[in-house]
Structures are given as structure tokens and as C-alpha cells.
Design a protein that fits this description.
single chain, alpha+beta, Helix Hairpins, Heat Shock Protein 90, 3 domains, five-stranded mixed beta sheet, 10 helices, about 15% strand, rod-shaped, binds adenosine-5'-diphosphate
Amino acid sequence: MQTFRKKLGIMFFVCSFVSVLLVGAFVNYTVKDKFNKYIESAQEDRRNQIINSLEAEFALEGQWSENSGMSALHEAYMGNYCLTLLDEDKNIIWGMDPYDVRSRVNLDAMPVEDSGVYTTQVYELKHKGEVVGFVEIGQYSALLLTGSDVEFIRAVNNSILISGIITIIATFLLGLYISKHFSEPVKRAASQSIALSKGEYGGVIVGKSQIVEIEMLRNSINTLAEKLEKQDELRKRLISDISHEIRNPLNILQNNIEAMIDGIIPISEKNLDMINDEVIRFGKLLENLNSLNDLENQKTEFLFQKTSLKMILQEVCSKYEITAKSGDITLELFAEEDVAVFADKSKLKQVFINLISNAIKYNVKGGRVEVFLQKINDRPAVVIKDTGIGISEGDLPYVFERLYRDDKSRNKIEGNGLGLSITKKILEYHKASVTVESTVGKGSVFRVIFQAKA
Ligand SMILES: Nc1ncnc2c1ncn2[C@@H]1O[C@H](COP(=O)(O)OP(=O)(O)O)[C@@H](O)[C@H]1O
Ligand SMILES: [Mg+2]
């Protein structure tokens, strides 16, 4: 396996190498092709010049002699041609030695296939429209390059090579930088995931990325970390809550029974009643845990039917009238219009028992509890407002967690921290939501909102 950075770097390098190679080959080919064409046309000109000068000399002298065409000879030397002058009957007047030419031509540097192959071509020499002689032009290569021509080609190739090497080095360095730039956030995300898997939730990945996918990855890992941390905190709280809610009553039972055995407290009816109350309380806790468990594992049966919310609320409020009064708390129901919902009546009653009993339980002397049946955004809603002790901001996110109890309530107010968990679960089955707003010392508002259609 390779690192992301290495892989990216290699890819970058290979791509730039291949493109430099392709561009180099293309430029090389084009330059060569154009240059060869240019040389070919120069050769053509030279040949024409030889023919023209020979014809001009004939026109001047009217006949061929050993000395005819000396200026053409100069042109031939320049172009590395081998000339043979023939009269109209193709008798040789004079001729150059091909071997003499061969020794002067730099054949190795000739970049053509037929380099070194001696070929000749015969051209007619005319005067006043009549053929007066012939010139045979021989050459050792279809393309004859001079030393400076070869030098020029070499210089072009060198500059292609050098610019290629510079480009490759530059892209290599750029590739190193870019691959680091790309791999760094991925690497950070990977090491953050590893930290999360080890249970180290503290860190967040900082530094925004300009790349959408990487930014998405960064955000999702940060959110995951946050959620895991919260989950972990909940788990820890749950364990401590369990020990409070389960171990405490057991301890009380054990201490009292031991005290009776040791004769420290008498085995009186009052003491036995107290122990019995504790057993009953403990039994209730287990029962609630069981029903929450059933709800969570979809083992609870629901009997959905059109249910009047007003009727349920009236029943619950009258059930709690005496309890409220005994605590000097005013309990009032505001339900002008009845609203029907599709619900399991007894489960829904359980929901409002939990919420209204909480509002009374966590209230203060002379406080108020107001229950409103209304519509919020056209949806049936029940709002339970109290003027009680309120819930602190730190506790607010946890009140719906199982066994969670505010430290103020624990040990002082009867309860086991399962009411709101059960409430929330039951409402989930009804596709209804429950939210809470609260201010310490002022009171709380719980809102239950149902789906629009009954
Ligand atoms: N109306 C309320 N006012 C203040 N605190 C509340 C209210 N309702 C619930 N709470 C807090 O939320 C906790 C969980 O409530 P709940 O699940 O009903 O458990 P229990 O009532 O058995 O303690 C309570 O212990 C209390 O701290
Ligand atoms: Mg409760």
C-alpha cells in the first residue's frame, strides 16, 4: 500500500513526464519537417541557378568549351553537388569527381534515409527553345545539410531537451507541494478517525479546505466526534444514574434490614412499612425500565384509534387535582376546542400523566400549572406550562435520557428519571414531538406537537 501523497505525487510526475515527452516529440517533428522543406526548396533554387547560369554562358559564347560553366561550378561546390556538363549529343565536356564531393559531405550528420546513396538527375539546357546540352547533377543524399544546418537542428533539439527537463523538475516540485496540500487534510481526517476509534474525542479538525469533498469529510468527522463525545458522556452518566437509582434503594433496604437483625432499630410495623415502600418503589423502577425496554424493542402493542385530546387532558387534570391542591398549586386546563388525534388512548394518557405530574412535582408552593390544548402551525398541540423550579441549561439536553435526574431532584423529590424517556418513546410511535424550554427558578414549558392529520 502507498500513501495518498505518494500516489498523487507519482501520478502527477507520470502525467507531466508523458506530456513533456509528447510535446517534445511533436515540436521536434514539426521543426524537422519545416526545416527539411526549407532545405529542399533551397536545393531546388540552387539547381535552377546552376541550369540558368549554364544557359546564360551558352547564350554568351554560342558553344560549349572546357571552360564553360565555371560559375556553376562554384554554386555546385557550395551545395555539395557533383556536376557533369554534356553537349547536345550527350558527350561529356567536363565532369566533377563524385568521390571528391563525397569526402566533403558530412554524411553521418545527414538525417535522411538515403544518406550516402549517390543519385543523379539529368536536366536539359536550352537556348532559344532548342536543347543545346545537358547537365547531370549528382548528390549523395536527397537532403544535403551544411554544417550550420546540422548545428541548428542540434541546437533546437537541445533546447527542447533542456526545457523538457526544466518542466519535469518544475512539475515534480509543484507536484510535491500540491500532493502535500491535498493529502494533508485527508491525513488529518484519517488520524482524527483513528483517535475517535480509540475513544479520544477531544480534538477537532481545524483549517477549512477549499475542496468541497474534503470540507464535507472534515465537517462530518467533526460532527461525528461531537456526537460520539456526547454519546460517551451519556453512557457515563447512565452508569452513574443507574448506580444512583438502583443501588440506593438496595442500600437503604440492606442497611435497614441489617440494623433490624443487629437490633439497632426495632422490627416495628412502621419500619417494616418503610421497607415495604422501598421494595414497592424498586419494583416500580424495574417495571418502568421494562416498559421502556419493550417500547425501544418494539414489543409494546399499540391500539391506534381516533382519540379526543380534550377528554384525555380532562381525565388527567382531574386525577391530579387533589395532588396539586395539596401542594398549594393551581392546575388549570385551557381547552376550548376539542382536537382529535390518531392515537393509543391509554399510552397517550401515560404521556400527559408524566408531563403534568412533573409540572406539579417540580413546582413551588403557590405555583401554577397551565395546560393548553391548541394548534401550532395547524398541528394539534398540548402545551404544559409551569412556574416551578426549572431546569438548568446544562441539564436540559439530558432530561429525556433514561434515568437522568437533575441533581436538585435526586434524593429530594420522588421519581426515577424514566418518565420523560417513556414519554418521548410513546410520542415517537405517534409521530409526535416533544420539546422543552426552561429557565431555572422561573419554570418550564413542555410542548407536544402531533402530525397535522388525525
Ligand atoms: N416540569 C419540570 N420542571 C423541572 N424539572 C423537570 C420537569 N420535568 C422534568 N424535570 C427534570 O427532568 C428529570 C427527568 O424527568 P422524568 O423523566 O419525568 O423523571 P422523574 O420525574 O422520575 O425524575 C427530573 O428528574 C427533573 O430533574
Ligand atoms: Mg417524571
